[in-house]
Automatic annotation (TrEMBL):
InterPro entries: Actin (IPR004000), ATPase_NBD (IPR043129)
Family: Belongs to the actin family.
Protein's UniProt name: Actin-related protein 6 isoform 3
PANTHER family, alphabetized: ACTIN
Pfam families xrefs: Actin (PF00022)
Gene3D superfamilies attached to this UniProt entry: 3.30.420.40, Actin, Chain A, domain 2, Actin, Chain A, domain 4
Length: 333
């Protein structure tokens, strides 16, 4: 087993594993959470979308805000749980490869160094930014590809708080050419919460639930004007309408998509079919990997505990391409 620990310390998720492994061994939220049924904050042991606990209106504490470490004590607590209980590594006999946000302040860098060496006692530390690692990975995966031959690339990193467009040359990020917008997954979730709260039911306090809605139902449109016209249709001609059922704390503690097959109908448009052929080409979607509907869910009447999504499914991700609609502007590093 490698003695190198790889840690992608994101604002939303922690991805960690051993050096040499293709995929991370552990993916957990970078936070502590407190359900309404608990009096203390808990450590996530899995992704919160797969936990069995009721996370309705759960309180959240995050060590990273707007991409930067603001609470080293909380980060120490989360890392201790990660290294000891999940990765089962000994920091004193290991080295650490750590990702860090671009343009991190010197004071934040010193706090990170103190965590790594003084609190955990790692042998060595290498800090890298995400764009350079992405370029290196792609170049090594395809040694005769265009990226490897040209030794340069443009990496777009959509994170929890920021979106960076970073040019990379010979595995080094060209800092003066980096462009940044203060828009990431957190802002998109908040925008989705506002839309659903205005049109259906108040979900402003349901961060975990709306994260799950965004990940399961939202997609990037290839033709926004066309999809807006389709979203106005009724009945089977509306390929985007789907229902999300909120947890009730009794029969189920997690939200779910009521009809997973209906949530995949929008792919018919991507394949080149017209909306009028939606019913005829329904069989074409059978090969898609979708969740199977539970017979129990069909019988339960939860009409007061669910909401429909239509154009929200593609308008929320569209904000990445139209950040001015949310009041965001581009910044140069």
């Amino acid at each position: 087993m490698s003695n190198v620990v790889v840690l992608d310390n994101g604002g939303g998720l922690l991805k960690a594993g051993q050096g040499g492994e293709r995929n991370p061994a552990v993916v957990i939220p970078n936070c502590l959470y407190r359900p309404l049924t608990s009096k203390k904050f808990l450590h996530p042991t899995t992704t919160l979308s797969s936990t069995t606990e009721d996370l309705t209106s759960a309180a959240i504490r995050r060590p990273i805000d707007r991409g930067y470490l603001i609470n080293p004590d909380l980060q120490r607590d989360i890392w201790s749980h990660l290294f000891t209980s999940l990765l089962h590594v000994t920091p004193s006999s290991s080295s650490l490869l750590l990702t860090e946000a671009l343009f991190s302040l010197p004071s934040i860098q010193r706090s990170t160094d103190e965590l790594v060496f003084e609190d955990f006692g790692f042998n060595s530390l290498y800090v890298a930014d995400s764009p350079s690692l992405v370029h290196l990975y792609e170049a090594s995966r395809r040694p005769y590809g265009l990226v490897s031959e040209a030794q340069c690339s443009l990496v777009v990193d959509c994170g929890f708080s920021f979106t960076h467009a970073a040019p990379v040359f010979q595995n080094f990020t060209v800092n003066y050419g980096v462009k940044r917008i203060d828009l990431g997954g957190k802002a998109l979730t908040n925008y989705l919460k506002e839309l659903v709260s205005y049109r259906s039911v108040n979900v402003m306090d349901e961060t975990f639930i709306m994260d799950d809605v965004k990940e399961k139902l939202c997609f990037v449109s290839v033709d926004v004007e066309r999809d807006l016209q389709v979203a106005r249709k009724r009945g089977n001609d509306n390929l985007f309408r789907c229902t999300y059922v909120l947890p009730d704390g009794v029969t189920h503690t997690k939200g779910y998509v009521k009809d997973p097959e209906a949530a995949q109908r929008h792919r018919i448009l991507t394949d080149g079919a017209t909306p009028s052929r939606a019913v005829e080409t329904k069989k074409e979607t059978d090969h898609l990997e979708v969740m199977e509907k539970s017979e129990e869910r069909k019988r339960v009447d939860l009409t007061k505990n669910e909401f429909d999504l239509t154009n929200e499914r593609f308008l929320v991700p569209e904000m990445i391409f139209q950040p001015a609609d949310l009041g965001n502007v581009c910044h140069q590093g």
